Amino acid sequence: MGLFDRFKEKAPVARKLEHPQDLLIGDMLDFALMSQADLSNKSFQVSDIWTLDLGGEKHKRIYFQLEDVDFSIRLRVVDNNTLELGLEVFPETLLKVFSEEDIANILDPDSGVNHQLSANVSMDVLPPEISGWVAETYRQEGFELAYRYDDDFRDRALPEHEDGSEEACDFAWLFSDNRQHSLEFRVFDGGRTEAHLCAYLPIRKIDALWPAKQS
What we know:
Elements: E1 28-31, E2 43-53, E3 60-67, E4 72-79, E5 82-89, H1 91-94, H2 100-106, E6 116-118, E7 137-149, E8 166-176, E9 181-188, E10 193-202, E11 206-210
Antiparallel strand pairs: 1-2, 1-11, 2-3, 2-7, 3-4, 4-5, 5-10, 6-7, 7-8, 8-9, 9-10
């Protein structure tokens, strides 16, 4: 090594991105052909990462918000082989498919957690914006108090005490019998409600992962 070599700037090591669990804001991914038309053969960029605390470190969920020019989707890595993709839907869209009374019962904490939700229309005539996202029948699996954090807690512990960074909500979820679809509700203080139709797909449905350009 020459006398001045130690002062030369070292070239940054290129970041590798080989699994969606390692996504960061700014990264991009390409989806393969799939039945969800708004995702099929399209590219999305990670715009946000947030965490849902369902009862401690073992039960936290990390969500990646994905955007393209005119569509937004939520992604969660379930395990090494499975993705959960969630489409946020408005109440009026859900009411085209499901009974308002049945949904109200699911969101009532005093009504138990043994509800079943069945579509009141054929899968052949679903609104086009949710085609591929809906199952004929769902069964409720839980209703829990959860906390949402607008931050990434993959590599650090959740706060032990409330510090104002969390947003409490009632979290209810249902699964289809084949576990290829789920339906989630989050009800926040004041009654604001988020609903997601979720589909479960193999990770191979991601064609490519592209790390954000390093500055």
